[in-house]
Amino acid sequence: MDMQAYIDQADSVLMHTYNRYQIVLDKGEGVYLYDVNGKKYLDFAAGIAVFALGYGNKEYNNALKGQIDKLLHTSNLYYNIPATNAAKKLSFFSGMDRVFFTNSGTEAIEGAVKLARKYFYKKKGHAGSEIISMNHSFHGRSMGALSVTGNPKYREAFEPLIGGVVFADFNNLESVKDKITDNTCAIIVEPVQGEGGLYPAEKEFLFGLRDLCNELDIVLIFDEIQCGMGRTGDMFAYQGYGVKPDILTSAKALGCGVPVGAFAAVEKIADAFEPGDHGTTYGGNPFATAAVNKVFDLFEDEKILEHVKKVSQYLENKLDALAAKYDFIVERRGKGLMQGLEFKNPVKDYIQKAMDNGLIIINAGANILRFVPPLIITNSNIDDMIEILEKSFQ
Ligand SMILES: *Cc1c(COP(=O)(O)O)cnc(C)c1O
Fold first, then answer.
1. What structural domains and CATH numbers belong to the chain?
2. Disulfide check for 354: which of 89, 267, 300, 392 has CB 3.0–4.6 Å away?
3. What is the pTM of this model?
4. Both ends of the chain: CA-CA distance in Å?
């Protein structure tokens, strides 16, 4: 069957919620993807910041195969060893005390919001709490996660969403202060905004939020679903800032391809949840958490964080050089291996041309190219990417 036939079939059975690029991907190897025609692509998208370890890592694959043969699922009515070990590792690396595993980033946000509300409810003895989120933020597509997502375009058709959510301006502490009331239970923020356009938080902003939350006993939630798991060169972006949240969400690279997410909290907040307050059938099952365990082990064995710190400097320099060379590029911004190039014009055609030339790259908004490659990317891969990109500008 030729590629177009696969695409036509897909379009006849899948809901049309995406304008997909016209390729059918078939297999992956390291930092390369292949389509069904065998065409090879250098991958600078990693399945949207997911495949941190690259495709086809033998140890990772073997860990999953081993767990498949042993035990895939138990439900959360019982204990299982991979979940316990994964929770130990996640709490160690995140600095949080208690972990709840979910099936996705969106569900991690749902859980984080519920936990913050429950903490407020226990403290005040009544419901009706409010959450402050940021304009241009992205936290997911379910009704709860959409309610804290600061993009009116995504929200409009689905209103009314959950109540009690207000939006402040990212990197503007005064704008957050203006929104605080006696009923504010949480502030939710991405330390580096991803979908919103690759905007890193300013250090003073996060410190300011931390002070505010300490002073008023408000729960500070960091959404590290995209910027966490080594992407910025620290295991979690907050560690590079030196500002610790009360609740942290993770997903994307947490499972490196197996659908898994988590929200984790410091003990004082986590203790607000009692049996019956929250649950999931699949969340934290032995298969998904076997992946999480292996991911953390491989991050250590392969010294991923050190590698990201080095290689991301190289990527930054190369992208800065591009921004200086072409007057249709506005600027580079981002952190670590989570970078964006903002253009004066839409980037859609560049993405298509890059794909024709064997490079997979994505956008974040109409005018911004997003670079979120596998974390194992090398300087020479970066050189190749720059070469293809420049060719695609012509
Ligand atoms: C991707 C993303 C989400 C949603 O995660 P899903 O796994 O797609 O549900 C939430 N927050 C941020 C910052 C994200 O990048």
1. 3-57+303-393 (3.90.1150.10), 71-301 (3.40.640.10)
2. 392
3. 0.98
4. 33
